[in-house]
Amino acid sequence: MAKMMLFRVLAICVSIIVSGSSSVGSDSESLLTCSKFHFEEKVLEKLVRFEHLMEINEEKMNKWEVKLESLSSKIDEQMKRWEDTFLSKLDNMDEAVNETEAFVKSVRDIQLQEQSRINNSYHESVEHFKDRSKNESEMYGQQINAMLESMSSKIEEVGVAEKKRGSSMELMQYTFQQDQRRFNQSFDLFLENTKLHANKTINELFAKQQRVAVTACVSSGRIFPDNVVRFSTVNFHVGIDNLDTFKSSGKFVCEIPGLYYISAHIYTRTQGQVFYVKKNSVIIASSASDSDSTYSTNPISAVVELQLKDTLYVNAGHSILATYSCLSIMKVI
């Protein structure tokens, strides 16, 4: 391989020299300053350098061949060691298999011997049991006959006692049913009372927790025909279902029993006129307009206990002005 490469390189060099010589000859006429010997000297210098490079490459190739031969020998040695190890392990496995087969054979022989001994012992035990059972059966037969006769007489006695017990059980069952009926009635009555009491307590607690309030004002000034002041402009309300009735009649109807607080401010130009807070037509608070001023704003308030359907309202028999006449009712408890 190296010789072929060297031959190719020499051929290339010769061709370069020939072409260079011809080129030099042709150009010598036009370029008098270029020397033919100078050109050949440069070509030879390049050939020497090229040969030096070829020698370096050939040395590297030789080193690689040495390394490859060394690696190949190491691989052959390792493969041989692995082969020897594998064969040794196979021999050990063969020995283990032979020992296992010998152990299994010995165990099988011992098992057969033990099985034979157990079978012989079993047959002897069965024969002995048969002989003993035959003798004991005759003895037990006599004892059983005596026991049966005794049991027959006792069964007759038990039958008589059972009849007596049956009549007693019927009487006890009747008494028990009567007591159970009375207990059920009492228990049902107790449950009903408990349920009613619990419902009442829950309703009371629920009513106490419910919020009821309203704030309203007079929409237009006038004298109301039945003296019940209508606060028809509702600014705030909560917990009231019959709000339309309150706006049209002027009467607050209690939907949730409890303690209520009522406060009103009556603005009027009538001097020294009395007005009232009434519960179910009964006066619970009263106030009067100022007797000195033409226009006056007059407060009135009260705390009252209301039950379901009770009414609460302001009664005034004189002119009420709309600007500052307002009412507030709130459930306290």
Automatic annotation (TrEMBL):
Q: Where is the signal peptide?
A: 1-20
Q: Which Pfam families match?
A: C1q
PROSITE patterns in UniProt = C1Q
Q: Which residues form the C1q domain?
A: 207-333
**Which residue stretches, if any, does this entry annotate as coiled coil?**
54-81
Q: Which SUPFAM superfamilies match?
A: TNF-like
Q: Which UniProt keywords apply?
A: Coiled coil, Signal
Question: What name has this protein been given in UniProt?
Answer: C1q domain-containing protein
Which species is the source of this protein?
Mytilus coruscus
